[in-house]
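Exercise: predict the fold of this chain.
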Amino acid sequence: MMNRSKMRLLVLALLGALCAGCGEGKPGKGASPSAASPTPTPDVVVVKVSRHPVSLYREFVAQTVASDTINVTARVTGTLSGFDFQEGRPVYAGQVLFQIDPSQYRAQVDQARAGVSQARANLKAAQDQVDLKQARASLAQAQANLAKAQRYVDIYKPLASQQVIPQQTFQDALSSRDVAAAQVAAAQAQVDNTRVSTEAQIEVARANVEAALAALEQAEINLSYCTITSPISGLIGTLNVYPGNVVGPSTGPLVTLSSADPVYVEFSIPEVAYLEIAGRMRQQPGRTAPFELVLADGTTYSHKGRFVLVERALNAQTGTLMVRTEFPNPKALLRPGEFARLRVQMMNVRDALLVPQEAVVQTQDLQIVLVVDAGGEVVSRTLEIGDEYGQDFIVTKGLKPGEHVIVEGLQKVRPGMTCKPVLQPSPTPRPGI
């Protein structure tokens, strides 16, 4: 069926050509010499090519990532009594998020404080050294008794030798002195033993005070855990657990919190593109590549991004490298997980010769444009094309500034024909988005 239609069109075209040929013969007897009208000169729209300063970009599909993502969990077990934030809204560092019933933990703090008081009292009692003081008093008494007994011995000895007093009296004095000396030795031993025991009691009492203080500190920490605050400023998600439920360390995240400002934008870059960008950076030491972000609605994000890092190794499966950039996000417009297009400025060309893409005809491996010269004749030009720039191509060879290329009416003309060019004002070239 299709072949029949093509054949019919071909026959009609041949018949039309034959009829036209007959009409172009010599005029008949009744025909005027001016009856055969010349073919009208076709109108075409042209633009004047010129040089412009342009900035060349590479564009990659990217995704926003929070610089910090934190799962907020309960660190003590208790009944969740309330929360103090709006889901999906910004929160600030230190803001109270949740409250766990603190009753049992307040009681533990009170109990720990009582333990500290008791431990301190025991330490004070040990430091008072009552037993040691008593032992020292007994030693002093024994030493006084020994001194007294020794005086009697000293008095009775010459008297006994002169037989002024009975010898038995002197012997009794000696016995009393020996007993007093033994009592002094026993009292001294008691003092030494009591001193060692008292020092040990003091050390134990001090350790008990430290343990009691540690228990109080832990109790106060547990009490503080009943008030859950935001560790960072950012955006908070939806609740996973609602008030009235018993929560604890094993409950899991109560809510997830993500930092909002700044935000990371990550993208995967092919190895070839990475080498190209790295080469540009080496050619211009000290220059940082400015990053732009094109949002899903086609608008360009108002803040520029900066380079953060390149993944240490190439992904062998995809042949790409992960690149991380950082963008300010003061109004929290960007949310984690959004897809966008990231543009990186590759280079600036001060005098790029631009030609509209619609003027270029692709013929196999050739890029051709039709130029209208000063005499209105159509001339074919083969171009060497560089990068794309918005709706234009950068021409590296084949055109000169000021020449007129056809952008509309290409189907009306062919090289060698004469045409009537209509100049179209050249719009200001803009990079594509």
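Check your answer against the key: The first helix runs from residue 2 to 23.
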